[in-house]
């Protein structure tokens, strides 16, 4: 089994211009690191509720940015190789392109 950990810089912007930031951690396990990346891509519509708990009505925007991917080597957490980042970024781009095409098709059907 392969274990990948994705670290995100997550933030929420509120209507009074306050910004709340935190590091978010997501762990994935799979047979390969590609499987772990694919699973992370599938869950790209992340749960931001913990960022805004109690202040939901004041939220303008939430977002996050990938900061690091790490893996487990003999019990030690180490930075994932560049090929893992490249694979993940490529998979995200493919998903965004697919979603864009589907949105354009829906809009075309409405006309």
Question: What does this molecule look like?
Answer:
By secondary structure, the chain is of the alpha+beta class. It has one domain. 39% of the residues lie in helices and 40% in strands. It contains 3 helices and 4 strands; from the N terminus they run ββααββα. It has helices at 33-42, 49-52, 82-110; strands at residues 2-14, 19-30, 59-73, 76-79. A 4-stranded antiparallel beta sheet has the order 2-1-3-4. Strand 1 (2-14) and strand 2 form a beta hairpin. Helix 1 packs parallel to helix 3. The longest helix has 29 residues, at 82-110. The radius of gyration is 17 Å and the shape is flat.
**Shape, per Cα inertia axes:** flat
Radius of gyration: 17 Å
Cα end-to-end separation: 49 Å
Average predicted confidence as pLDDT:
91
Spans with pLDDT under 50 lasting ≥5 residues?
Answer: none
* Annotation, overall tally of beta strands: 4
Number of self-contained structural domains: 1
Secondary-structure class: alpha+beta
- Separate helix tally: 3
Order of SSEs, N→C?
EEHHEEH
Largest sheet composition = 4 strands, antiparallel
Strand order of the largest sheet: 2-1-3-4
Strand proportion: 35-45%
Helical percent range? 25-40%
